[in-house]
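agent> fetching stored inputs for the FE2/S2 (inorganic) cluster docking request
agent> found them:
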Amino acid sequence: MAELVIVDRDGKEHPVEGRLGVSVMETLREVDFGVAAICGGMCSCATCHVYVDEAWVERLPPRQGDEQELLQELGSFRPATSRLSCQVPFTEALAGLKVAVAPDE
Ligand code: FES
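agent> prediction call returned; pasting C-alpha coordinates
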Protein backbone atom coordinates (compact mmCIF):
# COMPACT_ATOMS: atom_id res chain seq x y z
CA MET A 1 0.00 0.00 0.00
CA ALA A 2 1.09 3.56 -0.66
CA GLU A 3 -0.67 6.85 -0.14
CA LEU A 4 -2.86 8.30 -2.84
CA VAL A 5 -4.31 11.75 -2.28
CA ILE A 6 -7.74 12.23 -3.81
CA VAL A 7 -9.29 15.67 -4.21
CA ASP A 8 -13.07 15.38 -4.37
CA ARG A 9 -15.37 17.57 -6.46
CA ASP A 10 -15.74 19.98 -3.53
CA GLY A 11 -11.98 20.47 -3.42
CA LYS A 12 -11.45 18.52 -0.21
CA GLU A 13 -8.33 16.34 0.00
CA HIS A 14 -8.56 12.72 1.14
CA PRO A 15 -5.36 10.76 1.72
CA VAL A 16 -6.14 7.05 1.22
CA GLU A 17 -4.17 3.85 0.90
CA GLY A 18 -3.78 3.18 -2.80
CA ARG A 19 -3.76 -0.33 -4.20
CA LEU A 20 -0.42 -1.15 -5.76
CA GLY A 21 -0.08 -3.09 -8.98
CA VAL A 22 -3.44 -2.02 -10.38
CA SER A 23 -4.61 1.21 -11.95
CA VAL A 24 -5.33 4.34 -9.93
CA MET A 25 -8.95 3.88 -11.00
CA GLU A 26 -9.26 0.71 -8.89
CA THR A 27 -8.66 2.70 -5.71
CA LEU A 28 -10.89 5.57 -6.84
CA ARG A 29 -13.72 3.16 -7.50
CA GLU A 30 -13.49 1.72 -3.99
CA VAL A 31 -13.74 5.06 -2.24
CA ASP A 32 -16.88 7.00 -2.97
CA PHE A 33 -15.95 10.31 -4.57
CA GLY A 34 -17.96 9.96 -7.76
CA VAL A 35 -15.68 7.91 -10.01
CA ALA A 36 -18.03 5.45 -11.71
CA ALA A 37 -15.50 3.72 -13.99
CA ILE A 38 -18.41 2.24 -15.91
CA CYS A 39 -16.34 0.36 -18.49
CA GLY A 40 -14.17 -1.26 -15.83
CA GLY A 41 -10.90 0.04 -17.23
CA MET A 42 -11.41 -0.67 -20.93
CA CYS A 43 -10.63 2.92 -21.90
CA SER A 44 -14.06 3.49 -23.39
CA CYS A 45 -16.23 5.45 -20.91
CA ALA A 46 -14.10 8.33 -19.55
CA THR A 47 -15.97 8.21 -16.22
CA CYS A 48 -12.61 7.73 -14.50
CA HIS A 49 -11.34 11.14 -15.63
CA VAL A 50 -9.04 12.88 -13.16
CA TYR A 51 -6.75 15.90 -13.10
CA VAL A 52 -3.26 14.95 -12.02
CA ASP A 53 -1.51 17.42 -9.74
CA GLU A 54 0.99 19.34 -11.85
CA ALA A 55 3.91 18.22 -9.69
CA TRP A 56 3.21 14.63 -10.74
CA VAL A 57 2.36 14.91 -14.42
CA GLU A 58 5.87 14.26 -15.70
CA ARG A 59 6.26 11.18 -13.52
CA LEU A 60 3.40 9.30 -15.13
CA PRO A 61 3.66 7.23 -18.28
CA PRO A 62 2.48 9.23 -21.30
CA ARG A 63 -1.06 8.95 -22.65
CA GLN A 64 -1.61 6.38 -25.35
CA GLY A 65 -3.68 7.04 -28.45
CA ASP A 66 -7.01 5.69 -27.20
CA GLU A 67 -6.78 7.62 -23.96
CA GLN A 68 -5.84 10.82 -25.74
CA GLU A 69 -8.74 10.53 -28.18
CA LEU A 70 -11.31 9.85 -25.47
CA LEU A 71 -10.08 12.71 -23.31
CA GLN A 72 -10.19 15.20 -26.16
CA GLU A 73 -13.91 14.54 -26.58
CA LEU A 74 -14.61 15.78 -23.05
CA GLY A 75 -15.67 19.34 -22.34
CA SER A 76 -13.71 19.15 -19.11
CA PHE A 77 -10.47 18.09 -20.83
CA ARG A 78 -7.35 19.92 -19.64
CA PRO A 79 -4.44 19.22 -21.97
CA ALA A 80 -1.74 19.47 -19.30
CA THR A 81 -3.25 17.41 -16.50
CA SER A 82 -6.18 15.25 -17.67
CA ARG A 83 -5.79 11.49 -17.44
CA LEU A 84 -8.05 8.48 -17.48
CA SER A 85 -7.16 6.93 -14.14
CA CYS A 86 -7.72 3.42 -15.51
CA GLN A 87 -4.71 3.98 -17.75
CA VAL A 88 -2.33 4.95 -14.93
CA PRO A 89 -0.76 2.02 -13.06
CA PHE A 90 -0.22 2.77 -9.38
CA THR A 91 3.25 1.80 -8.18
CA GLU A 92 5.50 2.49 -5.17
CA ALA A 93 7.20 5.17 -7.24
CA LEU A 94 3.91 7.08 -7.26
CA ALA A 95 3.39 7.05 -3.48
CA GLY A 96 1.87 10.43 -2.62
CA LEU A 97 0.32 10.96 -6.04
CA LYS A 98 -2.44 13.57 -5.97
CA VAL A 99 -5.38 13.45 -8.37
CA ALA A 100 -8.58 15.49 -8.48
CA VAL A 101 -11.82 13.89 -9.58
CA ALA A 102 -12.97 15.66 -12.78
CA PRO A 103 -16.53 16.98 -13.15
CA ASP A 104 -19.26 14.53 -14.08
CA GLU A 105 -20.20 14.74 -17.77
S1 FES B 1 -12.88 3.18 -16.48
FE1 FES B 1 -13.79 3.61 -18.39
S2 FES B 1 -12.29 4.82 -19.40
FE2 FES B 1 -11.43 4.40 -17.46
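agent> quick read of the result: The domain at 2-101 is CATH 3.10.20.30 (Ubiquitin-like (UB roll)).
agent> awaiting further instructions
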